[in-house]
Amino acid sequence: MCAPRDAVTRRLALGTLAGLGALAACGDPEPAPGIDAPPAIDAAIDAAIDAPIDAPPNLPPQVGAIAGPTTLLAGASGTFAVVATDAEGDPLTYAWSASGAPTPGTWAAPAAASSAWFSGAIAATGPAQLQVSVSDGVNPPVVQSLAVTVAVPRFTDLQPIFGMVCTSCHGNAGGLRLDPANAYVELVGVATSNTACNTLVRVAPGAPDQSSLIRKMTGTTCGDRMPRADPTYFDDNPGLVVRVRSWILAGAAND
User: Fold this and answer.
1) Which residues partner with 226 through β-bridges?
2) Which residues contact 105 (CB under 8 A, 6 or more apart)?
3) Residues 218-230: pLDDT tens digits?
4) pLDDT of residue 39
5) Does any domain span residue 255?
6) Of 62, 84, 100, 243, which one's alpha carbon is 20 to 30 angstroms from that of 208?
7) Is residue 237, in this structure, part of any structural domain at all?
8) Which residues, in sequence order, are CB contacts of 40 under 8 Å at separation 6+?
9) Would you say 241 and 142 are in contact if contact means Cβ atoms under 8 Å apart?
10) Contacts by 226-229, CB closer than 8 A, 24 or more apart
11) For residue 245, what is the DSSP state?
12) What is the distance between the alpha carbons of residues 4 and 24, in angstroms, rounded to a whole number?
């Protein structure tokens, strides 16, 4: 039932919205002529009309699982990637990292959605935990992880290295033969013939830094750096040094 108009008028006089509601309920959207809503009510109505609608909350990025190999030889490179999207279109940043039994290793593009990675040198096969942190700059970063087993190389895993850069000079003849039939017996425990390192052996099992093979690959403390035709080859391919170091660290087995 509609309230009497004088009752509505009294409510308006009290400065509340109740009178307006009563008028609207009775089919009279405006007060009677000569009856004005108090300023406080006008202001409240205007504020309600002009109030902004609350924006929805900014959502964190959606990040898929890391794609990539779950087993790698020490020093061998694998490519790891994630697919990430952001509902608001915020720019995304990426940060890759690694921890675990192998040393952190090396990322080719640690701030990209996809990056190659290889481990540091290891003495035993073990797990590495690879992570990528994806941020939209607004919410806490979203982190994805992948466990990767890093394996000690076998001696047969070194043969491709010798074949690529060594056997053109150190084939099956001369003072050092690195062809598959002779390489092991000419490397492990064999005294270095170079006068600059004649107190060392070519490969000292468990001790890569005391192995002239590593010194020839990485510097000139044992004479000319190898390969002689491209002395910075192993600077450009550091994972190959990690492969040889890991084999030596693990005991330089003939496998």
Assistant:
1) none
2) 98, 117, 118, 119, 120, 128
3) 999 999 999 999 9
4) 81
5) no
6) 100
7) yes
8) 15
9) no
10) 226/165, 226/166, 227/165, 227/166, 227/169, 228/169
11) H
12) 13
Environment class of residue 39 by beta-carbon count within 10 Å: exposed (0-12), middle (13-18) or buried (19+)? exposed
Q: Which residues pair with 63 in a beta bridge?
A: 84
Q: Which of 63, 72, 70, 68 is nearest to 81 (CA)?
A: 68
Amino acid identity, position 185: V
**In total, how many domains does the chain have?**
3
Q: Does any domain span residue 235? A: yes
Which residue is associated with the tokens 């290891």?
A: 122
The answer to whether residues 42 and 95 belong to one domain is no
Amino acid, res. 123: A
Tell me, yes or no, whether 159 and 141 share the same domain.
Answer: no
Q: What is the pLDDT of residues 120-140, one digit of tens each?
A: 999 999 999 999 999 999 999
Residue 116 main-chain phi, psi, to 5 deg: -85, 150
What digits encode the pLDDT tens for the residues 71-91? 999 999 999 999 999 999 999
Residue 250: CB atoms within 10 A of its CB come to: 21
Tell me if residue 160 falls in helix, strand or coil.
helix
Question: What pTM was estimated for this model as a whole?
Answer: 0.76
For 233-250, what is each residue's pLDDT tens digit?
Answer: 999 999 999 999 999 999
pLDDT at 36: 62
